[in-house]
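User: Hey, my collaborator sent me this sequence without any context and asked if I could get a structure. I don't really work with proteins. Can you help?
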Amino acid sequence: MFPLVFLRLGNSWVTKMKFETISIPDSEPLPEVNGIHHYPAKMATKLGEYFLSEYATDRSGKMFDPFAGSGTTLLLSRLYGFDVCGCEILEVAERISSVKSTTLSKEEIKEIEDFRDSYSIDPVDTVDSWENREIWFHDEVYQDLMAIRNVINQYEGSSIYPFLFVALSNVVWEVSSADPDILVPTRSKMAEDQPFYESEEILSKFEESINNILDLQLVHHNNGLDPKKPDIKQGDAKRKNTWPGGEYDLILTSPPYGDGINYRRSISLQTRFFGLDDQILDEKITKHTVGRKYYQLSESDDLEFDSNILSYEFFSKIENNNPERTDTVITYLNDMSIVLRNMRSKLSEEGIIGLVIGNPEVADTRVPLNELIIELAEDNGLELYDTPKKDEITNRFQTPVRRSSSEPIKYEYLITLERDT
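Assistant: No problem. I've predicted the 3D structure and written it out in structure-token form, which is a compact way to encode the shape of the chain:
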């Protein structure tokens, strides 16, 4: 049994779970893991390490992350002996997660080192044409990026190409005019307009990105991982056919927090630079990404969760402050109900689920997502495996300089689930 407190919210009674406070040290156990690429809201390695050390040391088998993101959970789970797989709806992110969790052979590592030490580029006279390209990149800088792209494209189809792709993708972000401390590409007073870099500086940044990837490969090999490329698909976590076959002994993930972040936009510069943008696909991804903003269910769609949630006080506040943002919350809860149902159907009899959740601010209202996720899980055949935990965020994700009107998330919550009995 877990401690419960009953609260009166609006016209309904709801159950508030007590969360055990933990304090995870700020120092990252493996700083190389999250150093290969910019990506919004990466899971801190210390959180994944905490979960695995607490709940998975005596477990083995198949692990799955339906929101693979940049691949942190996949690599950490491999280090704990799991056979990992995952899915991610964004193509660039799928490539990042694959690179992070793949162990190369010594011969492949040598091939990347040889490339780094001997490649040369030919000057480019033209620049790609896409909407607003000129506000994000200085023309000469963009030409240097294109020259590097031309070189790595010669390796397309080889086992090292994804690693070169990710290295250059990270440089694309670094030399743009995007504010480095905001999750999605944003122009601000804190970022220089069309920053200029000499060709030597851009090549140096590219080589540094390659070195960061090679440093991560040292982590793989120093921890005894055999050469292997995990099964990671680009796909929608709500669609069960995206999930690899069989049951999973561990599901560890940090789903979007339902605050309407446009994750597609977060990698839009790289998507356009590499020619991966497709209007039909973009619209499909924008429509189906969990946590999307301002997408409303059609009238014919049934709610996948208990509609009593909509009578809770926080929901009334959002509706009063910004009625359009209620769509964000409704759609998110609907999506997460489907994902949790998928988790339940694919979880082995003795398997466990670990979810890292934060409570976002929507329309000046703090949403108790930690409690709502537990409620949705219980409605979909899952129950708590252990007392849920909360850990104060100090410097992991939030920039020290506040850049938005919403209050930052103060805690992250670790929820462990199993199949109900």
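In plain terms: The chain has a mean pLDDT of 86. You can pass these tokens on to your collaborator as they are.
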